[in-house]
Amino acid sequence: TSKLMTEALEAEVRGMKIPIFDGFRVVAIIRDEEKALGLIAIDKASQDQPTHGITLFACTNIIYATGGPAGLYAASVYPHSQTCAHGAAFEAGVKGVNLTEWQFGLASTKFRWNVSGSYQQVIPRYISTAPDGSDPREFLSESLPSLKDPSGQLNAIFKKGYEWPFDVRKLGGGSSDIDAAVFAECAKGRRVFLDFTRNPFDAPRLQIELLSGEALEYLTRSEALGETPIQRLKQMNPKAIELYKNNGIDLEKEPLEINLCAQHNNGGLWINSWSETSLSHFFAAGEVAGVFGVYRPGGSALNSTQVTSLRAAEYISRHYREEPDIEGYLEHLQPRLEQLNQMIQKLLDGQGENLFSLRKRYQERMTRYASVLRYGEGLSKALSEVKEDLARFEADTSVPPDRISDALINRDILLTQFAYLSAMEGYLSNGGVSRGSFLCSDWFKPVETKEDPFSAYVGVTTVDYDRMKAEFSFVPVSPIPDRELWFEKVYNRQSQKKEINFHEQHPDQ
Question: How far apart are alpha carbons 85 and 28 in whole angstroms?
Answer without folding.
Answer: 10
